[in-house]
Amino acid sequence: MKFITQIARFFVGFLFIISGLIKLNDPVGFSFKLDEYFSEAVFNVPFLQPLALSIAVFVVIVEVVLGVLLLIGFKKKFTLWSLFLMILFFTFLTFYSAYFNKVTDCGCFGDALKLTPWQSFSKDVVLLVLILILFAGQKYILPIFKSNGANYGLSFISLALCGYLGFHVLNHLPVIDFRAYKVGTNIRKGMEIPEGAPESKYDIIFKYNVNGVPTDFKMDELVNLPEGAEFISREEILLVKGYEPPIHDFSIEKDGENFMDQLLEEPKLLMFVSYNLNLASEDGLAALNNISTQAKEKGYQVIAMTASNQETIEDFNKKYNFNFEFYFCDATTLKTIERANPSLVVLEYGTIVQKLHWQDASKISLK
Predict the structure, then answer these.
(1) Domains in the chain, ordered, with CATH?
(2) Sign (positive/negative) of CA torsion 113, 114, 117, 122?
(3) Mean pLDDT along residues 268-283
(4) I need a surface site. Which of 63, 65, 111, 263 has the fewest CB within 10 A?
(5) Which residues are listed as membrane-spanning (predicted)?
């Protein structure tokens, strides 16, 4: 039992630290996932949505610190109960996501490792079992350091380092970018589907009104439709998911036209990204005109990308008198491109060469 307990102790502690650090590297991304859980479509607790980022930072720091406490064997009872309650909550969350297909990615490991809802649930069940093993063998969990001062010191250092990392990435950008739009990515190539890649397979269901009763028919049954059947709707049900390129939802639209092909051919393109202008930093928006002017003097084409509607764009144009054009792109895509609101993305022929938080605009490299 002693050996099993130590293995479980190492595995659980290490996994909590790694999982927490990955999310702490990108707490804004984790907050987007929490915001999705809090929405009316899932748990319907919209009053928590404004607190999503604060909750995200708190949860991931606690996750890392609990992992550290477990590994050094400090505050054993507090640590085990905290881990148990946390994993119990996560297990419920991932089961709900998997069973009801509400949130297709729990964000357990951020963008570093994508797990399906059932994989996330299975992972949490394994962790729950391991934590129960730790409860059973807790007498074998002894502090690594005999001095309480050393244990408190290491605990405090881990908390302080987590706090610093969280503060840094919130005011700049993630230290490591695991997303599809990281520096060096060519957007056009990221959208390509390799030859021979598996295609998605669908079952198509047709719904007809038959004598006042809605009835489903498959494709091969349409040749024998009852007389007088009236078409209601057509639904595609995904049977097998095929290959999906890393970038599959990118567009640069204006007035119903997609300018993506044209703009991705630009040798010098500067994009300001703000998925929601109403949530953007006022200081950040106020700084954009000056950056745009500098970029245009260097021969750059300057545009802004947002998911805000035209009325909102016009309101902000009146307030800030922007000297660049706004284009539309899906909000989820823009959140994936960059975490700061607003942020700066420099491209050369469709390849991302630099990404910056608006607070780091002075570091922009304009050739």
Answers:
(1) 2-171 (no CATH), 201-240 (no CATH), 248-363 (3.40.30.10)
(2) negative
(3) 96
(4) 263
(5) 7-24, 51-73, 80-100, 120-137, 149-170
Q: What is the pLDDT of residue 283?
A: 96
Residue recorded with tokens 């295609």: 199
> What is the DSSP track for 262-292?
HHTT-SSEEEEEES-GGGS-HHHHHHHHHHH
3 state SS of 146:
coil
Q: What is the DSSP string of 220-232?
A: GGGGGPPTT-EEE
Summarize the confidence of residues 109-120 as an average pLDDT. Answer: 76
In the chain, what is the straight-line distance between the N-terminal and C-terminal CA atoms, in Å? 63
Contact predicate 226/300, CB 8 Å: no
Distance CA 37, CA 48 (A): 10
Calculate Rg over the CA atoms of the chain.
25
Q: What is the pLDDT of residues 292-340, one digit of tens each?
A: 999 999 999 999 999 999 999 999 999 999 999 999 999 999 999 989 9
Contacts of 184 (CB under 8 A, 6+ apart): 351, 352, 353
